[in-house]
Structure formats: C-alpha cells, structure tokens
Amino acid sequence: MLISEFVGNTPLRQCDALSTRYHTNIFIKEEFHNPGKSAKDRPALFMIQDAIARKKVKPGGLFVEASSGNTGLGIAIIAKKLGYRAKIFVSQSCSEEKRDLLIKAGADIEICENSNGLHDFNSTQFRAQSFAASHPNAYFTNQYYNTQNIRAHYKTTAPEIWKQTGGNITHFIAGVGTGGTISGVGRFLKEQHPNIHVWGVEPYGSILAHFLRHRTLPNNIAPFDAIEGIGRNFVPGSFDADYVDHIFQVNYRETKRVAKEYYAQTNIMTGFSSAAVVASLDRYADMMDFTATDNVVLLFPDHGDRYISKLYNGSVQQADTSSRITSFNF
After folding, report:
1. Rounded to whole angstroms, how far apart are CA atoms 39 and 74?
2. Residue 188: what are its φ and ψ, rounded to 5°?
3. Where are the domains of the chain?
C-alpha cells in the first residue's frame, strides 16, 4: 500500500465539554491520528513527493528541515520508509519528548539557538539551508517557504473537514506557525463559502496578527511567548493572509492552565498549540459571539504526550492511553 493511504483521513469528533461550555457545536479535528501523530505528516509527505518527482534528491539522499519537531518527525518517518535519510535542525525550545522521537525515527538532529528565520545565522532555518547547500544529495524541504505546505492542507485537510461537516462548517480555528495549515484550509473553505470564519491563534509577541491587520511588520520585534509550534517574528512565505480573517493572541501561562483543565475535564492531553486554541475560546468567547447553530472546528495538530514535561510537569504518565496512537505504523 502507498504511504499516502496512511496519512490524513483523521477523525472529526464533537467535544461535548466545549460545546456545552460555549453553547455551540464544537468539533475537534484530531490530527494526532496520523502515522507520526501530527498534522505535519501531510506537508512532509507532499514536500518529499514533490522533491522526488522533480529529482531534487537522488535515492538514498538526505532531506533537511528546520522544525519545532513535528514536521521533522514526519519527514524522518516518510524519508526512512522511502529509503532516504533525514537531518532535522531544532531550536532549544523543542521538547525532550520530540527530540527522543526524532532520534527513534532515525533522524540526525542538531539543536540551534532559535528559529528566527533565514536572516539569523543561529536559527534553525539558516543552518538547515546552509547545511543542505553545502552537502551533496541533500535537499532542504523548507516548510516555511514551500508551496507544498499550503497545498497539502488545501488538497487533504480542508476537503476532509468539508465532507465531515457536510459543508455546514461556520468557523475554523487553528494555531499559526508556518501558516501552511490555516492558509491551505482557509483558502479551500473560503472558496466553498466566503462567510466561513477562518481564525488563527498565536502567542503574545508574535507578529502575524499585526501583519494581518496592517500588512507590514511592527516597528519593534521582541521575543514572543514560548508556545511550541506557533508564533513567529518573521512572516513565512507559507502564510497567506488573504484567507485568514483574524488572529487571536494568548499567553503561555493561560495556555498551560487550559491544557491541564481540559485534561482534567476530558481525560485528553492536548498538544501545546491545541491548548492555545482552546485558550483562545476562553479569552475571546464574547468577541467570537458563537450561536447555538454554529459548527466550529478546532484543529488539534498533535497530542499532549509530546509535552508532558512542559505542559503537565511530568505528572501525567500512563493516563490517556485510549487516545494514544502507535507511532511510525505504516
């Protein structure tokens, strides 16, 4: 069977707890059912397939990426299955759980000072690009500027959501990191019905909300709250502001609190950016102004078992086993 048959087609589950709390219909797109347990398996597959089709890398070659962990893991798993290798540059903020998973998947990892973009010599992006350019048969997938990032979600994630909701979705809310998910899903949904609300979530201090409003960078760019996987101090090429209506900002403390509260209420551990999406409901519910007949889809890109040390202080060990998915199981 083809690898593509195992990536995507993830379930959409109504969340009774959130639906009751916000007096509307809230659904969770559970991306942790992908082989690498994250939404990033989708662009990883598309970027690898595109590079191979265009002969950018020969058999046995090396795929290189700058990643907070999930895209890198997807690339490592798929590359290994196809007979290629992977080298992933991660920042210091990458969780220990993700680093361990990358190594388990066969990736060579390098830890960098930050992920501040190609203009910073110490960033994951600059070092990944430099490494690929200076080594034979190595290809930098470059998720922040690779059109396949958006295309993967336009071609797979969005049509799945549209079908699963019977075309009755009214809101889509997702964390914004590279921008590929919200741009691809947003474009597809807006093409089906322009009145569907497409909302992003990022940490305080990230610049994408400012860019969406003004289409320029802020005068002062400072470090943003460390919510792993989302937030940027540069505008990725894979962020298409034309298909995003608004970006809400949340902070680290409330995201961590919400993750614990959601787990206590539902016995489901959310990933870091998933918790940020739930936190946005908490903080901005009045502004969101949901009605009883709305159908709100929240994208949960990965699972909380990758953030036990960060979100749950290591206190969750054997819990939530019912929703765990076996990794690397093609």
Report:
1. 9
2. -60, -50
3. 3-33+152-321, 41-140
Residues 137 and 60: beta-carbon distance below 8 Å: yes
Lay out the sheet containing 85-91: strands in order across: 108-112, 85-91, 62-66, 138-140
Check if the beta carbon of residue 33 is closer than 8 Å to that of residue 325.
yes
Question: Would you say 325 and 201 are in contact if contact means Cβ atoms under 8 Å apart?
Answer: no
Condensed to tens digits (0 to 9), the pLDDT of residues 287-304 reads 999 999 999 999 999 999
To 5 degrees, how large is the angle CA 327–CA 302–CA 215? 140
Please check whether the two domains, 3-33+152-321 and 41-140, share a CATH topology.
Answer: yes
Question: Radius of gyration of the chain from Cα atoms?
Answer: 18
- Who contacts 59 (Cβ-Cβ below 8 Å, separation ≥6)? 83, 84
Cβ-based neighbour number of residue 153 at 10 Å? 29
Q: How far apart are CA 91 and CA 223, in angstroms?
A: 14
CB atoms inside a 10 Å sphere around CB 80: 17
What whole-number distance in Å separates Cα of residue 114 and Cα of residue 237? Answer: 19
Write down the pLDDT at residue 187: 98
CATH number assigned to the domain covering 3-33+152-321 = 3.40.50.1100
Which of the four pLDDT bands, split at 50, 70 and 90, describes residue 311? confident
Cα distance between residue 276 and residue 135, in whole Å: 38
CATH class of the domain comprising 41-140: alpha beta
- Token couple for 100: 């361990």
The yes-or-no verdict on residue 112 having pLDDT over 80 is yes
Determine the longest span between alpha carbons in the chain, in angstroms: 57
Is the predicted pLDDT of residue 320 greater than 60, yes or no?
Answer: no
Rounded CA-CA distance 328/37 in Å is 9
